[in-house]
Design brief:
Layout (H helix, E strand, L loop, with lengths): L1 H18 L5 H7 L5 H11 L4 H13 L7 H11 L2 H19 L12 H15 L9 H17 L1 H4 L7 H8 L3 H7 L11 H11 L2 H19 L4 H14 L6 H26 L2 H12 L5 H10 L9 H8 L29 H12 L7 H10 L8 H16 L4 H8 L12 H12 L6 H5 L8 H14 L4 H7 L20 H17 L12
Helix pairs in contact: 3-4, 3-5, 4-5, 4-6, 5-7, 6-7, 6-8, 7-8, 7-10, 8-10, 10-12, 11-12, 11-13, 12-13, 12-15, 13-15, 13-16, 14-15, 15-17, 16-17, 17-19, 18-19, 19-21, 20-21, 21-23, 23-25, 25-27, 26-27
């Protein structure tokens, strides 16, 4: 009898709901915690038998509700999808201020985690913005309001809010679409909370912006970077630095603030340059190369700019990159032809010419696909006599890899000839690291130039040429090369230069034995060319 009574009472309650009779705010609040309450609240929202204020309350209740057997946001999504736009949009219009009030307690920047209420409001905004079939549930005006509201909330404390709740910042931005880019771009500014997250903001812009929107975002990042670089940003940087020092209970005298500003400027530009790299737009690359070419700029900043330009350069950028490689001086004379006198030693570089900076510029030249610069790179390669002490060998190594990358398989014979040229004193010899690296670079070519490289095993070639050929065959050789490597395993020709003795590779024979072991292992594991496959 008690069971029958409970069923009858439940049925009566449901009839009252369906009839729209006597539903109150208290009923909705009570139903948030009952077994069948979520369905009743959804009915109030969908059926339209109650006043609009009650239906808005029902929508908010679904957003706020934490129920063990029901997902309020899913119910909200389903309810809105069943309603006609003319019925749904007025409810959403009335709901928007309610969502704003839920977000407001955490509306400003805060070191605390966002409240559960605010997170659920953000998730509800996502449900409304995403809508159904990529069409928002909200009308145009309310969509714009929700977009600004939810993005401002996320951006106010990005690190704690981007992943909070059921839907990430990326999902929210995807739901909004290209129009989100303008709001995201506006958030890029010289502020203590804005700069550290600018790379993440750049990724969000990339996800949804039109080409014009991406360029506008990059222009904004460039503008802020220029502000940080120049006098215009100095007052704001000093304010931020003073605030940070005060918070850390550190001295705030003028000298301490100046040092903090310098550190802050470098940190901010590092992040801003990475944001430019992330978006990969031509206007950003132009700015980075301008910074890199500015001899008056701090050296580390120029290096950062060249690093950030990786993968974004074209043949149009070759002249500026070569100017950095040449330290702003005239291009070097043509390379000495193989079999002729050694190339003259390069002129002393300008005082602000750094070997690492030049190496980074060479890296970028290698990405331009501009084969026309190969003769100039050969001239630079022939005159690069630096060693390990000043890391000059790295510059020569980068030049060699750029030549190989730009020239392809057809340039290998000429490169090997230049590698074998006598060099002007003083010269410490080729390092193990660069010969090994260039062997790997040649091994990456398609097709691998096996036949030409086999020709450099002969004792008539200089040690560095033979060593490179041997190391190449160690990683890209075939079954037939095992015998050739074994045939020179006792060769006593000396290999000199930094790093060879550390590797216990001081003779050509030692290099050949190491390469043969490597090739045997590769062939045995099936990672090399198939045994007996035709040579190329």
């Amino acid at each position: 009898m008690r069971s029958i009574g409970r069923k009858a009472a439940a049925t009566a309650a449901m009839v009252l709901v369906l009839a729209g009779c006597n539903v109150s705010d208290a009923d909705i609040e009570h139903w948030k915690h009952t077994q069948r309450g979520p369905g009743k609240i959804t009915t109030v929202l969908v059926e339209g038998r109650d006043e609009q204020a009650m239906r808005v309350h029902a929508a908010r209740a679904l957003i706020e509700m934490r129920h063990p057997n029901a997902n309020g946001l899913e119910l909200l999504q389903g309810a809105f999808s069943r309603m006609a736009a003319t019925e749904r949009e007025p409810i959403i219009h009335a709901l928007v201020p309610e969502l704003q009030s839920m977000l407001s307690p955490q509306g400003g920047a805060s070191a605390q985690a966002p409240t559960e209420q605010a997170v659920r409001a953000k998730d509800a905004a996502y449900v409304i913005l995403r809508g159904e079939g990529r069409v928002s549930f909200a009308g145009a005006e309310d969509k714009a309001t929700l977009t600004a509201m939810v993005l401002d909330w996320i951006l106010a404390d990005f690190n704690s809010r981007a992943l909070a709740g059921s839907y990430t910042a990326e999902q929210v931005v995807q739901a909004i679409g290209p129009s989100a880019a303008e709001r995201l771009t506006a958030a890029i500014r010289l502020e203590q909370n804005a700069i550290p997250v600018v790379v993440e903001v750049a990724k969000l812009v990339n996800a949804v912006a039109t080409p014009a929107g991406k360029q506008a975002a990059v222009a904004r990042v460039v503008s802020v970077s220029q502000e940080v670089e120049g006098a215009a940003g100095e007052p704001r940087l000093r304010e931020i630095a003073t605030s940070l020092l005060t918070t850390a209970h550190r001295p705030t005298d003028a000298a301490s603030v100046t040092r903090a500003v310098d550190q802050l400027r470098t940190q901010y530009l590092t992040v801003l340059f990475e944001a430019i790299r992330t978006m990969g737009q031509p206007n950003g690359t132009e700015y980075l190369l301008n910074v890199a070419a500015n001899s008056a700029a701090p050296l580390e900043r120029r290096k950062m700019a060249l690093t950030a330009a990786a993968g974004a350069v074209t043949t149009a950028h070759t002249p500026r990159l070569l100017a950095i490689v040449n330290c702003g001086q005239a291009a070097p004379p043509p390379a000495a032809r193989p079999g002729h006198d050694p190339a003259p030693a390069p002129a002393a570089p300008a005082g602000n010419c750094d070997v690492d900076l030049r190496g980074l510029a060479v890296d970028r030249v290698g990405e331009t696909r501009d084969r026309s610069v190969v003769p100039q790179l050969f001239a630079l390669y022939d005159g690069a006599n630096g060693g390990a002490a000043d890391s000059g060998f790295m510059y020569r190594w980068k030049l060699g890899e750029a030549i190989v990358k730009l020239g392809g398989p057809s340039v290998v014979p000429e490169f090997m000839q230049h590698l074998g040229l006598p060099r002007a004193a003083p010269f410490e010899g080729f390092t193990f690291a660069e010969i090994n690296g260039e062997a790997q670079a040649i091994g990456d070519l398609t097709p691998p130039p096996r036949d030409p490289m086999r020709g450099y095993l002969a004792a008539s070639h200089p040690a560095q040429v033979r060593a490179l050929a041997i190391m190449f065959l160690g990683v890209r050789g075939e079954q037939q090369d095992l015998a050739a490597l074994q045939g020179i395993a006792a060769d006593a020709m000396a290999v000199t230069g930094v790093g060879w003795s550390d590797q216990q590779l001081t003779t050509i024979g030692a290099v050949a034995r190491r390469a043969r072991t490597t090739l045997e292992q590769s062939l045995r594991q099936g990672q090399g060319a198939a045994a007996g496959s035709p040579a190329r």
